[in-house]
Write a structure and sequence with these properties.
Blueprint: E1 4-8, H1 18-32, E2 36-40, E3 50-54, H2 60-69, E4 75-78, H3 81-90, H4 92-101, E5 104-107, E6 124-126, E7 144-149, H5 160-166, E8 174-179, H6 185-197, E9 201-203, H7 209-217, E10 221-224, H8 233-240, E11 245-248, H9 251-257, E12 264-265, H10 270-282, H11 284-297, H12 303-319
Parallel strand pairs: 1-2, 1-3, 3-4, 4-5, 5-6, 7-8, 7-10, 8-9, 10-11, 11-12
Helix pairs in contact: 2-4, 3-4, 5-10
Length: 320
C-alpha cells in the first residue's frame, strides 16, 4: 500500500547535519518502498497519510499540529540523542507530549527504551542507521591517523581526543584529524587555539559525505568521544568501512556496539582515552581485535536491514 509521508526534520535544506542526512537517507529508503515522501522542516497542512518526525522536542510543533489535524492518522516520532538524554529532562512537557502523540517511537540503538516512560515503552521500535560497505582501506604508513567526525558542540565533547593526544609519548605517530562544522564561533576559536599548541591535532571543518568516506578509508581508527548520542551514524559508517572504533561508554554507543565491545573508555576521561589510543597504535593484536569485533557487527548496519525494519514498521501501522 503506497502512502503519502511527510518527514519532518529540524535541519534545513542544504544542511550537512546528521539530522538532515538521516532525513534524506530515510526519504530515499521510503520511496524505494513505494511511498511518496516530502521532507519538510514544518508541518503546513501538507497532504499526508503518515508523519515521521525526527526529533521529539525540536519537531514538537509539527507533531502537535499533525496530531490535531489528523488524529486518526499514524504518527512516528524518532528519538534523537538530545531528546533522550537532555530534553526529556530539561523540556519535559513538549518532549513527553510528542511521545504521547506518537503511535510508534523509533530509537536508533538497543538501549533507547530505558529513557522512555513506562506508559510509552510498548511503542518503541529500534531501527539502526545503515551505511554502504567501503572496501580497500589504505591508512597512511608515515603516521597513525585517528579521525573524529562530528560537529563541534558540547554534546560531542569534540576536543577530548585532542587533549588525549597531548598526553601521548614523544615517539607516538598518532595524529588526530577532526571533521565537522563548529556550532558557533567559540567552538571554532577553541579548535584553532588547540591546533596552535597541539601539533598532533588538525581541525578540517565541515566536509561532504563522499570525502568523509575517503577519510575513513585512509584512517587507522575512528574516535567517538560524545557525552550523548542517540545512535550515531558515524558508528555505522565506520563499521561498514572496516574501521575500528574507540568510543565513550555512553548508552547510545553501547546500544550500537554492545556491552562487551573492547573499545570503550569512560566519558570525559582523558587519561584513559590517551592510554587506549596508545594501545591501538602499539598493539597490533588489540587493533586486530577491534577490527574483528566491528566485522561481526556489520550485519546490524546493512542497508537491506534498515530498509526491512522500516517496511515492517509501516506494515505494522497499516495493520493496526
Amino acid at each position: 500500500m503506497s502512502m503519502r509521508i511527510v518527514l519532518i526534520t529540524p535541519a534545513p535544506p542544504g544542511s550537512l547535519s546528521g539530522n538532515r542526512a538521516t532525513a534524506s537517507r530515510w526519504a530515499r529508503l521510503l520511496r524505494s518502498l513505494g511511498h511518496k515522501v516530502e521532507v519538510a522542516v514544518e508541518y503546513r497542512d501538507q497532504a499526508a497519510d503518515l508523519m515521521v518526525a525526527l526529533h521529539a522536542w525540536r519537531s514538537a510543533a509539527a507533531i502537535r499540529a499533525f496530531a490535531e489535524r489528523h488524529p486518526q492518522r499514524p504518527m512516528v516520532v524518532v528519538l534523537t540523542g538530545t531528546d533522550a538524554y537532555r530534553f526529556i529532562h530539561s523540556h519535559p512537557q513538549a518532549t513527553l507530549d510528542s511521545l504521547a502523540c506518537a503511535d510508534r517511537l523509533v530509537g536508533l540503538h538497543d538501549l533507547i527504551a530505558d529513557v522512555v516512560p513506562d506508559r510509552e515503552r510498548h511503542k518503541v521500535r529500534v531501527i539502526r542507521q545503515s551505511a554502504r560497505p567501503l572496501a580497500g582501506r589504505d591508512p597512511p604508513k608515515r603516521f597513525f591517523r585517528i579521525c573524529v567526525a562530528g560537529h563541534l558542540r558540547d554534546e560531542k565533547d569534540p576536543l577530548r581526543c585532542a587533549l588525549a593526544a597531548r598526553e601521548l609519548p614523544a615517539d607516538s605517530r598518532i595524529r588526530v584529524d577532526a571533521y565537522g562544522k563548529a556550532h558557533n564561533a567559540d567552538w571554532a576559536d577553541a579548535a584553532r587555539r588547540e591546533m596552535a599548541v597541539n601539533p598532533r591535532y588538525r581541525w578540517h571543518g565541515e566536509i561532504g559525505h563522499s570525502r568523509l568516506r575517503e577519510i575513513y578509508r585512509r584512517s587507522h581508527a575512528l574516535a567517538l568521544t560524545s557525552r550523548m548520542e542517540g545512535g550515531a551514524n558515524v558508528v555505522s559508517e565506520a563499521v561498514m568501512a572496516g574501521l575500528p572504533v574507540i568510543a565513550s561508554a555512553i548508552p547510545g554507543s553501547i546500544g550500537l556496539l554492545g556491552e562487551t565491545y573492547p573499545g570503550f573508555y569512560p566519558v570525559e576521561d582523558t587519561a584513559v582515552l590517551s592510554a587506549l589510543m596508545q594501545r591501538i597504535e602499539a598493539e597490533s593484536a588489540f587493533l586486530g581485535r577491534l577490527e574483528r569485533a566491528c566485522k561481526v557487527l556489520r550485519p546490524r548496519f546493512s542497508v537491506d536491514g534498515e530498509r526491512q525494519a522500516w517496511a515492517d514498521l509501516l506494515d505494522e501501522l497499516v495493520g493496526a
